[in-house]
Every structure is written in C-alpha cells, then in structure tokens.
Amino acid sequence: MAKTYDYLFKLLLIGDSGVGKTCLLFRFSEDAFNTTFISTIGIDFKIRTIELDGKKIKLQIWDTAGQERFRTITTAYYRGAMGIMLVYDITNEKSFDNIKNWIRNIEEHASSDVERMILGNKCDMNEKRQVSKEKGEKLAIDYGIKFLETSAKSSINVEEAFFTLARDIMTKLNRKMNDNSSSGAGGPVKITENRSKKSSFFRCTLL
Amino acid sequence: MADNLPAEFDVVVVGTGLPESIIAAACARSGQRVLHVDSRNYYGGNWASFSFSGLLSWIKENQEKSEISDECEDWRKLILENEEVISLNKKDKTIEHVEAFCFGDQDSAKDVEEAGALPKLPVFGASGAEGVAQDPNKECPPLDSAVARAESCEAEKAASVDTASTVEENDTEVNCENEGSPSVSSSESALDLGKAEAAPSEVSAQEPKKIMYSQIVREGRRFNIDLVSKLLYSRGLLIDLLIKSNVSRYAEFKNATRILAFREGKVEQVPCSRADVFNSRQLTMVEKRMLMKFLTFCLDYEQHPDEFQDYKNSTFAQFLRTRKLTPSLQHFILHSIAMVSETDCSTVEGLQATRKFLQCLGRYGNTPFLFPLYGQGEIPQCFCRMCAVFGGIYCLRHSVQCLVVDKESGRCKAIIDHFGQRISANYFIVEDSYLSESVCRNVCYRQISRAVLITDQSVLKTDSEQQVSILTVPPVDLGQPAVCVIELCSSTMTCMKDTYLVHLTCPSTKTAREDLEPVVQKLFHLNTEAEKETENEELDKPRVLWAVYFNMRDSSGIDRNSYSSLPSNVYVCSGPDSALGNDCAVKQAETIFQEMFPTEEFCPPPPNPEDIIYDEDELASEESGLSNSPETKPEPSPEESSSRGSTAVNEHSEE
C-alpha cells in the first residue's frame, strides 16, 4: 500500500471543557466552524496532511473525547503523542489557571520530550476577555514553550499554531535523525488484521 | 467536579476493570447513553497498573484495613415507599496478605522522591546522589533535562514516526524514553553534568549496574506495575476484539520473546517455533526430529484419533511418556507449551492446549504472546476511551451508595451516588468487589497468589537484555499449582532501565508469600548487599531489589444465582482470573452485552474518523448535549474501515 505522506505526527488537544478544542480541530482539519458542539462525541481524531520543507506530514490530531470534563483522561491518550496543544479560553480565567494542572498531567503521562504549545482561544471575543495576552505569554515563557492567541471562529492563528507545532516536531526529529539512531531489537507491535501471517509454522515439512 | 451529571442514562457501569470497560464500550458504540464510574481514583480496579509510588500507596491502602463508617444517611430520603435498597461496598476487600520487602539500602532513600510529576523537586539527600556517584559505569549519565531532551532519546523518534521511506524499519522501532533521559532534579543534574561531559558515551559492558532503592524511587514513574499478570494470546479473543472494534489503535504491544522452562534447578529456553527448533543448540538432532514430529501431530491431532484414542482416560503427562520423547522434551511440552498440570490434565485437554499454543505462533512473532506496552492496565482504559468517544461519561473517585430496586417488579431503577444524586438507568453492570457481603454471602471465592519483584538481571541472560519471557515453574509437590513467571524488560515501558519486572502468579493454596516465596528463592538471590560477598555460587542469579506479595480474590466463574437477591437487570462482572490469557473477561463481556441487547452487534468497527463528514444539520442535531447519536455518523464500508491500520505504525512489511 503506497503511503501518501512522509511522516505521521500524533498531536493531542488538551484543556478544560468548553475552551474550544474541538472547534480548533475542525477549523484546522475541515476549515469549518460550528458553535453547537456541547461536548465532543464520536470524534477520535481528525487528519490533515500538510507540507513542510517539501515533506508531506500527516497530522493526526486527537481530541479528548470529553474525558477532560471530570479529569478522567486515560493514560493511553497520552502515549506516543509527539505534540500537545494546551488550550485555554481567554474569556475564562479558570481555564487559564488549569493549564498548570494539565501541564502536570502531561509530565506524568506523556513522553518526556513531547513538544508543547499554549493557545489562548476565543481571541475574537475581546470584550469578554479575562486573561490578558501578556499573562498568557508570561506563563508560556515560564514553561519555556510557545504561545499564540487563536480564534477558531474567526480563523485567527489556527493554521499558524498547528504549523508551528509541526515544525518544532520536525526540527527535533531532524536533529535526532542526524544523531543517528541504532535501534535495538523488537520494537512495539501495532495490531491490525492485515498483519497476520498466512502460513502456520509447522506446515512445511522439515528436517 | 463542578457540573452535575445527568439524572438519566441507559446503562450505568460500576467498576473500570476489563470486562466492565468492554461492556461500556460496546454499549456506547451501539448508541446507549453510558455512565461509567469507579470509586477509586484510577482506572482498572484490580486490572490497574501503577507507577512505583502509586503501587506503594496502593500497598499502604490495602494494609490499613480501616472501615469507613457510613455517617451520612441523607440519601435514604430519596428512596420511595415502594422501593428498597441494595447497599454497595464502601471498601474493597479483594486484596489480602500484602507484604512488601526492600532488599537493600532503603534508609538512604528516605529523602528521595519520585521525579517528573512536579516542576519543582526537592533537593535529593546526599545518600541519594551517592547511589549514582558510586557507579562510574552508569550507561546514561543524567544530563540536564534540556540536553537529554535534545540528544539522548533519539530512538524515540522511531517509535512514533511513520517514515514512509524506510518501510522495512517500521517494525524495529524502539521506545526508549526511559532509557535515555532519566528525569533528575536540577541539583543533581549539575552534579552529574561534569561526568557526562567527561565521558559522554561511556558504555559499561562488564558489570551489571547496581541499582539502588533510591533510584527506583526516583525513577518511579518509569514503572507501570500490573496488579494482574497476563499476556495476550495472538489468536485469543482479546486480540480479535481489539482488531474488530478498532480499539487496537489506542495501544501498542511487544512480543513475548522467549518461552522458558525450569528444569533440574536451571532456567532453559524452550524451542517452540520451527526456527527455534532448528537453531536450538541444546537439542540433539534426534530430539529435534521427535519434537517436530510431535508438534506437527498436535496441530491436527483430531485427524489422527488412533494416535491418542487409547489414552483418552490417561493424563497428558502419561500420554507424553508413550510418545518416544526424552524427559526434557516431555517437560517442555507439558509445562512450557501446553502449560498444564502434570496430575489433572487429560490427554485431550493437553492436546488442545498444545494446539492453541502452536496456532498462536507466528502471527506477530516467534512466541504466541503479546504484552501491551505500559502494562496490562492500558487495555481497560483503551476500551474506556472508545466508550467516551461514543459519548460515555466517565467519573473516577465516584462511589455508589446503593442500588434502588422497585419492590413490585424486582428491577433496579437507579443508583444513588456519594453526592446523594439519584441516577436512573435501564441496566446496571456492577463489578463483584462492589457487592456487599449480604449479596455475596453464599458465594465461594477462590484466590490468586501474586508476587511482583524488581530485579537487576534476567533469569536467563543472553546477548539482548530486552527480552520478554514467560516461564512456568512446575510445582515441587504434585497436585500443587504451577507458578507462572513473566519477566518484563524496560522496553515494555513497565520498568526503569537496568531493571526487570518479574510477575509471579498461581492459584492460591496459602498466602501469596507462602505459595510463591519458594519459587522466588529458587530463581533469585534475596540477600542484601552485606551478605553477598560470602557466597559466590549464587552470584549469577538475579538479585531481587524489591518485592511485594499479595492475594487477590478470584471472582471468575461464579454463577449468577450464587448472588442473593440480584435484580434481573443488574449484571455482575468478575475481577481478574488466574489464567494467563484474557478470554474469560472478553467472553463475560460479550455474554452480558448480548443478554442486554440481543439484537445489537458487539463492538462493530467504528467509522473511520477520516471518513466522518460533518455538515451543519448533523451538528445541530447533536445539540441535545450529552446524549450520543452515533446514527448521525455514516457507517463506512468494511474496506474503508479496515484500511485505517495504515495510519499507525504497522508491520505489514514484515511479510
């Protein structure tokens, strides 16, 4: 099966309920916006293939499946993630304060070298703003990660955000590639139905 | 927990163990509104995995058998006149005889804390640092985290990147985040950075590194220690279900790499695949031929009834003695391949077990088994994720006070949770440990004996230290159960580098320690540092750094009628059983689901996320909020859904 991409990056969206994670996801993957999601149902992840430095990169962006609501995100969600968007709502101070807790969660469950980025979403609703841009920037600097204010609704900075994260992952990857990895034996197995081998082991006559 | 839960669901599931989680996923998938709760603050119940510090808290919790007094009875006013209540347990009583041992320098670790979770770490005590300083051959000197992040995890990129141009390498990826970048406090980084610069890639080939208890504590989050020790048969029901439901996309696995046997005081590798038999150095040519002939016969033994007809009433062990096999081959087949009892297993059962083993070979590797990366505890969570994707609502740390039963119909109408909220539903799934003693008074439970060891070397050293091994230790006294030993290496993401996690399991006859310590003593070196010098012949055995023993209740295989006065729409899921595979849990989940929804398909493949097209109308119809509406999603054709596998790292190229 020919692949239509050079790299696959697994990205996660994390943040409190209602900050607009799913809207960001839809804006980026479908260029659509809808205010009617109440919580995320039926969306495992969305895909968009982008091009960076002539390479086709398939971004597989996972949504929380609503499990952020009662803080019951499964550890399996974090496994293998290469980039994480931490999203808060600029009109909701609480969601900003909780970014610290989400970062702690990431540190506990995600791989230690995952790329992270903080997004202050809903920046189109300036009149209801509770979190200043400076505050967001400061938090990002404290953690040494990048920051953008976005609006899924007005399509502000959404492309930039995902491209920035993808580029950072790419940069890290290239550096590692150059360092050259000599990976050892038997890596992890993804199970899919096409994997099974046809032949039973003892069918052939031998000895 | 700011917002309240809806007051009505279709199905309420209490407990997040494997069968409950599969049922929750199946129900949500078929369009039911599911509430899934667990009273603990972690997923999985007795199927959970813990970091080292998490396990220590679990041990403490289970050693303190404090009763929680039920001071608040306010919820009783929610019960109507024509209703009665079935109270649920407040305290889990399924774990007993928990005994933990540290073999080494526990005192020096008293100031050390698990690293990683908190941004600001306490400065480690001098003794903690000493553990590192004593060790000039440390393979991966702790670097400043930024440096480590940039340089020492290079292999990890292979783990999560699907590089189209290197198709051949997709199957040889290595996840080494725990190998390259130990999380250390800034103070210690500074201390060690000089050394790192002096000898950036010093690799020790000689001595096995001495791991101190303080290091285990500090690297605690590298551990994912399972309460149950199981493997997935590559053609078992769980693998089938993971594939069919597409839940497999949430997990990664590692092949068990070796089947081991313990014979005449020695650990040996069992040749079981064709290649193994060919390459075996321990077998003579004649033995190779005998073994191949016998295994080939087992694969289609039903076609050759004349070969075993006369032994139908004998044990499998007796049958093997008649098959011109040398004693070592008989041992391998009986204990390591069929993994059956010498005294109670009939010929046909033994042949069946052997065939099951052989049929599972070669699907994913040279042994029949897979182990989930990050531990068995991931698997229930993967099903929970699936349930959540289809609208299931999750609450941990959420206890249920009671079931509310309608006196007239005898059916359960609702639960009342610990906030005193009444939540109604049509069906209720409750894990056995939540049922009170009055419901279980006629139930006779078995027990499982478990031990978990952290050791410094493999029980059988080879060129590669990254081995996942399964070893069956036959009983010393006939009639006793055999002990199943599973040794996990650090690349399974269940233990820190330079350690092994060893799980021992058997059906209980006594306390876990009484059942398992004799086996531990045979395979491992238990003495502390000081005594080590006195004895040399013991030196090649792996050293146990830390151990815990406990008994776990085995509530599998209990007839529904044994529970007293269970309403007809309340279904009970059992905790883990003592078998190696997961068939029991999958069967139970499917049976319960089919009883509730006889016309619904059990966990059909979900639509491919890439195929879901949302348009405005559909989105509007989802406004009803928490109700899920899978009917708004188009079902993909089977080809579309099966092609999904290619988005993740997969290994078709291996063919």
UniProtKB/TrEMBL annotation, chain A:
Where mainly found? Answer: other
Q: Which Pfam families match?
A: Ras
Q: What is its EC number?
A: 3.6.5.2
Which biological process annotations from GO are given for this protein?
antigen processing and presentation; protein import into peroxisome membrane
Task: Give the location in the cell.
Answer: Cell projection, Cilium; Cytoplasmic vesicle membrane; Cytoplasmic vesicle, Phagosome membrane; Golgi apparatus
Q: Which GO terms describe its molecular function?
A: G protein activity; GDP binding; GTP binding; signaling receptor binding
Cofactor field:
Mg(2+)
- Matching InterPro entries, A to Z? P-loop_NTPase, Small_GTP-bd, Small_GTPase, Small_GTPase_Rab
Q: Spell out the coiled coil positions from the record.
A: none
**Catalytic activity of the protein:** GTP + H2O = GDP + phosphate + H(+)
Alphabetized, the UniProt keywords read: Cell projection, Cytoplasmic vesicle, Golgi apparatus, GTP-binding, Lipoprotein, Membrane, Nucleotide-binding, Prenylation, Protein transport, Transport
Q: Provide the topology term for how it sits in the membrane.
A: Lipid-anchor
- Which superkingdom is the protein from? Eukaryota
GO CC entries: cilium; Golgi apparatus; peroxisomal membrane; phagocytic vesicle membrane; recycling endosome membrane
Record PANTHER family: LD44762P
> What family does this chain come from, according to its entry?
Belongs to the small GTPase superfamily. Rab family.
**The protein's name in its UniProt record:** small monomeric GTPase
* Taxonomic source organism: Taeniopygia guttata
The upper taxonomy is: Eukaryota, Metazoa, Chordata, Craniata, Vertebrata
From TrEMBL, chain B:
The RAE1/2 domain sits at 448-578
Main subcellular localization, coarse class?
cytoplasm
Keyword field = Cytoplasm, GTPase activation
Comp. bias regions, Polar residues = 644-655
Q: Which GO terms describe its cellular component?
A: cytosol; nucleus; Rab-protein geranylgeranyltransferase complex
Q: Which residues fall in a compositionally biased region of kind Acidic residues?
A: 612-621
As for subcellular location, the record says: Cytoplasm, Cytosol
Q: Which GO terms describe its biological process?
A: intracellular protein transport; small GTPase-mediated signal transduction; vesicle-mediated transport
Annotated region Disordered: the residues are 158-204, 599-655
Q: Which SUPFAM superfamilies match?
A: FAD-linked reductases, C-terminal domain, FAD/NAD(P)-binding domain
Q: What is a single molecular function from GO for this protein? A: GTPase activator activity
Tell me the function of this protein.
Answer: Substrate-binding subunit (component A) of the Rab geranylgeranyltransferase (GGTase) complex. Binds unprenylated Rab proteins and presents the substrate peptide to the catalytic component B. The component A is thought to be regenerated by transferring its prenylated Rab back to the donor membrane.
**Family assignment?**
Belongs to the Rab GDI family.
Protein name (Swiss-Prot/TrEMBL): Rab proteins geranylgeranyltransferase component A
Tell me the classification of the organism that encodes this protein.
Eukaryota, Metazoa, Chordata, Craniata, Vertebrata
